[in-house]
Amino acid sequence: MVKLTQLNNGLRVVTKSVESFESVTLGYWVEAGSVREDESNNGISHFLEHMAFKGTKTRSAKQIAEAIESVGGYSNAYTSRETTAFHAKLLKDDKNIAIDILSDILQNPTFLKEELERERGVILQEISQTNDSPDDIIFDYFQNVAFANQSMGRPILGSVDIVSKINAEDLNNYRKHYYNADNIIFGAVGNISHDEILDYAGKYFYNFEQNQTVVHNNEYKYIGGSYSDIRDLEQSHVIIGFNGVSSISEYYYPMAIFSAILGGGMSSRLFQEVREKRGLVYSIYTFSSSYSHNGLFGVYAATSPQNLSELTNVVSNELVKMQENISENEFLRTKTQFRASLLMSQESSASLCEQIVNQTMVFGKPLSRDEILNKIDSVTIEDIKKLAKNIISTNVSAITVGKKGIEDVMLQLKKNGLSVNCS
After folding, report:
1. Cβ atoms of 13 and 198 closer than 8 Å
2. What is the pLDDT of residue 210?
3. Rounded alpha-carbon distances, angstroms, from residue 121 to 38, 52, 170, 221
4. Those residues with Cβ within 8 angstroms of residue 24's Cβ, 6 or more apart along the chain or in another chain
5. Backbone dihedral angles phi then psi of residue 242, each to the nearest 5 degrees
6. pTM given for the model
7. How many C-beta neighbours within 10 Å does residue 319 have?
8. Among the options 19, 39, 49, 169, which is catalytic?
């Protein structure tokens, strides 16, 4: 049973009770990610996520780490484009420990100078590691080309220059602006009851700042274009991407099925055509990201420089074919795979918790399993074809990292009828 309660202070509590689980996954999701930043503080959402675990008014960083791990649980956090999450998983009888710790780090961080400088160094190393990894940095380049000169296009980690300047006052100001009760969802899934979680409200949930959060809904517009990072690498990494669909689009589920047919697994068109038949790559896959206002769709692969042009030709041909040529067999097979993946994800408390929280953010309430399955079942082949036409008609975002530049890629894309803007 999934239940949602909005407290008097605006904080939303959403839970799903699964009595067969011995564990509980729970945490806070704050509707503040890198899209809420500007050029002067890009990376602050991620910096704040790191600093939350580095000490409170009553606990040191070591005490925070030991408290949950001493009972066999674990805690973690992540920052995305639109949210920052702080979560833990542990046995059902120890849930109060996690609620206490996570509430403390969000409500009472100290941002001590020594810890701040130490964590700044960690984040700068994280940025360097991403920059040194072509299969990581290419996704930042893609995001930047797709949403050039917009908050949605900036890296979640921020830049070395900006992260080097963020101080405790900046973190406190950002936290006070966004870490308010009306901008937070507490989610819990596992062997718990909703009323049991609400019993913690007076001690923990009502202690968040109750300032009304002024959210500047930064409108972002897909642009597209090209970028090439020339490096002395054995392989050329490439992303070919397009404008996608938003989280609330009627094409959200058609997009998932479209992506899976094209490049979602070993039976997908791209895997079979590019790897199995031609041996051009070790790995190739499609991906889609959906945000509040729109989204992205793309194909990632890595190949030898001499095969980059052929790879691009095959990928673009397969993209074009999706507009007209989708068989009943592959459509039904992929839909079955997608349904199975959804159902299997509901056996994980972590996946379930994230699902019900994200649905609450997007739709104002969690969706039932039957609602989601009905949406999947209602998708038709014509929906997929129409979506393919819409996607492919948008301006291409093409990115390469490796010895070879972008010229041959753009030439092949244009040759195969895709919309290319080389500026």
Report:
1. yes
2. 87
3. 22, 16, 17, 33
4. 89, 90, 91, 92, 95, 98, 188, 189, 190, 191, 192, 349
5. -145, 170
6. 0.94
7. 26
8. 49
Helix axes 95-107, 61-69, angle to 10 degrees: 160
Measure the CA angle with vertex 321, ends 316 and 322; round to 5°.
100
In DSSP terms, which residues pair with 121 in a beta bridge? none
The residue with tokens 């095969």 is 307
Any long-range contacts for 40-43 (C-beta under 8 Å, 24+ apart)? Answer: 40/162, 41/162, 41/166, 41/170, 41/174, 42/151, 42/154, 42/155, 42/158, 42/159, 42/162, 43/123, 43/155, 43/156, 43/157, 43/158, 43/159, 43/162, 43/163, 43/166
CA atoms of 42 and 52, how far apart (whole Å): 18
Rounded distance, CA 47 to CA 155, Å?
A: 12
Chain-centre distance for alpha carbon 22:
28
State pLDDT tens for residues 156-191.
Answer: 999 999 999 999 999 999 999 999 999 999 999 999
Provide φ and ψ at 24, rounded to 5°. Answer: -135, 135
What residues contact residue 27 under an 8 Å CB cut-off, 6+ apart?
A: 85, 86, 87, 88, 98, 102, 186, 187, 188, 353
Q: 49 an active-site residue?
A: yes
